[in-house]
Specification:
- The structure is a homohexamer of 132-residue chains.
- With 132 residues, chain A is an all-alpha fold.
- The radius of gyration of chain A is 19 Å and the shape is elongated.
- Chain A is 65% helix and 0% strand.
- Chain A has 2 domains: 1-58, AhpD-like (Up-down Bundle), CATH 1.20.1290.10; 59-125, AhpD-like (Up-down Bundle), CATH 1.20.1290.
- Chains in contact: A-B, A-C, A-D, A-E, A-F, B-C, B-D, B-E, B-F, C-D, C-E, C-F, D-E, D-F, E-F.
- Chains A and B meet through helix 2, helix 3, helix 4, helix 5 and helix 6 of A and helix 2, helix 3, helix 4, helix 5 and helix 6 of B.
Chain lengths: 132, 132, 132, 132, 132, 132
């Protein structure tokens, strides 16, 4: 059903198995979701993507739940079902309430609408917004 | 330069002038940015969009700065320069730091990348993420 | 400024010059806009695109102005400034009023918003809409 | 299957039940499609979206069928299956013929193609199209 | 399941049957995939699309496999499942290896990410890249 | 003009200066383009993006020019002017001819068009394309 085979644990290239071990240790669960099982065909791409995800989604100037909600917003704006579903699950696991989710999608919808209005009218950027 | 003329205050249809008055009162500033000056040709659309924006961006289950960052994320994912610039300015006015902005765009970039990876591989949604 | 040079009339490959002659004859004007002047580097691509445009935009089950408005809607949804501007000019030349343009962009904005809401909620398609 | 539960009539928050009553009265049918059943979790968002839809899609400078076709065009350009299917059904209910639908998608496809050509070549906007 | 009926061979309009004959002769197989079976409702659109596809995908300055990979890249960036699947199959039939496919999607993901970073930062185009 | 200041060499955080040294050594030129000068505000994001770019764009199962053309295709499909211009320059530096560029954009345009046609018709995926 995927364009590359979903790999079971016993089918992993050794370098991918190492990344899976780190995913399990980091997330403290045996469950490894399908995204990594398709990416595992290419151990270099798998490792780079996982290391990036760990770094990008770690607490920093923004908290992890805010980051998950931003992730959902982009995934909706780009029409990626897998990503909408997996990151909505992740956000809920990090405490996102139903009320927060509905407000999140309200903002996404409003932004989508005004993006198109501004583009259609080719509204010129105000001097005050011209940046640094 | 826009596809509809930017309206100066003295050119506003009366119903649009009323909305401008509310924008100024709500934001406590005389400045009305170009988005509203292009939209003002259609008082009904202007009023509906302004009322929606007030409602959607108000503090609720999410705080206003988080909402601005979600707005930026969508605007980037949809390639709207006007919206990126105006909402980056708005987020900064609400306290967004440089570090927060750079983390925000890091998440946006990561989401954009993994969206495309999941789509290319047509990764099937895990049972665990199938939703409610 | 473009990624391929804008070709003046005297720089056209002969096969592109023939297409330009047909553009002028069909549109009854000497003006040939920049889109065709960049495409003219590849006479085969130029001819194919022009022939397609003539066929697609001709009156048929839909009238030419409706077609121009659909063209604008897509160009806005895909963030193409050149196309927004050139087809807005074309639609105006075919009689689009300011009121029609503002309603058009109202629909585009509304559609953009509800698209994102439906995607975010992963609303399942109703049986009644499952198609033929 | 959706990321928020589809609400049956007896599960609606009271404020959402009121909106459903108006949807039924306005459309003169008991059928309320799934989009509203997912949105119903947030009565404020539901009401705002429904009121906007009524206003935007009402006859005005453009007729309702033209508006439905513009809606479909945007939904296709933004890859929203739910919206493509629900608005195709709506357009057919308003009289869209097969020939009109095929012409509509011909224009959408042509616009999608030339959007990308113009972007790839970074064709500069003609002075004649620079707007108002 | 589609918005227009999939046409079986015996249901084809005569002009569409002629195009199907050419598809079969050109591809040296009796199999005609569903894309053409939905498009066949409109013989003019079918013929134009098929003739364009033959011309665009033919060997030229780029080889057919490179063209298929570019096709996949666009289809991923635009979220079209049908096109991702059909052109991945086509690329494999033309010799694309698993390693090539994984590198292709690595590039697509990287491009998607840096596109969004550049847009978010509104990085100005370097003089050196300003084009011809 | 950008939303974050373009950093000159003497303004770089030390960790970003190290990355710039590697960019110069790897590319064998003193020129560092603006993308990196905006990203340099965040040394971690800068380093991660540069290391990824080096890895992804290196010769492998696909040659570097093919990778640049795929990069351009995605950038066009996502409307990123900076990326279209910088990667077109990069592809030309790697030997892309005018004829190759025009064929590339021909494929991008064709893919963009058929993506939308397949989506509009909701063409079901053929069994033969259902993947592995």
């Amino acid at each position: 059903m995927s364009t590359v085979k979903l790999l079971e644990d016993h089918e992993l290239p050794p370098a991918s198995a190492e990344v899976f071990a780190d995913i399990r240790a980091t997330r403290k669960t045996d469950f490894v979701n399908n995204f990594w099982r398709t990416l595992a065909h290419d151990p270099v791409l798998l490792k780079r993507t996982w290391e990036s995800a760990k770094q990008v989604m770690a607490p920093g100037a923004l908290d992890p739940l805010t980051k998950e909600m931003i992730y959902i917003a982009v995934s909706v704006a780009q029409s990626c079902e897998y990503c909408i579903r997996s990151h909505t699950a992740a956000a809920r696991a990090k405490g996102m309430t139903d009320a927060q989710f509905m407000e999140l999608i309200g903002v996404v919808g409003m932004a989508a609408e005004t993006n198109r209005l501004a583009l259609a009218m080719q509204t010129p950027v105000d001097e005050a917004f011209k940046g640094v």
